[in-house]
Amino acid sequence: MRRRIGAGAFATVWLAYDEHLDSPVAIKVLADNWTEDFHVRRRFVEEGRFLRKVESPHVVTVYDAGELDDGRPYLVMSYADQGTLADRLELAPLSPSQALHVIGQVAHGLAALHDRDVLHRDVKPANVLFRTVDHGRSTQVIAMLGDLGLGKAMDMSSRLTMIGGTPSYVAPEQARGERLDARADQYSLAALSYHLLAGRAPYDHQTLSAAADPRPPAPMGDRCPPEVEAVVRRGLSPDRDGRFPDVESFVAALTEAMGECVGVAPEAWIPVDPELTQAAPRPEHTAPVEALPPVPSLPPSRPVRRSRRVLAGVLAVAAGVAAGWAVERVSSTERTLTDSTGTISVTVPEAWTASVEPDEWTPRDSEVTFPSLAAGAAEGWGAKDSADPGVFVALLAGARLPEEVPQHPECRTSRPPVEDLQDGDASVTVVFSDCPGSDVRVERVVRATSNQLMWVQVRSDSQAEANRVLDSVALHGM
Question: Is 106 exposed, middle or buried (0-12, 13-18, 19+ CB in 10 A)?
Answer without folding.
Answer: buried
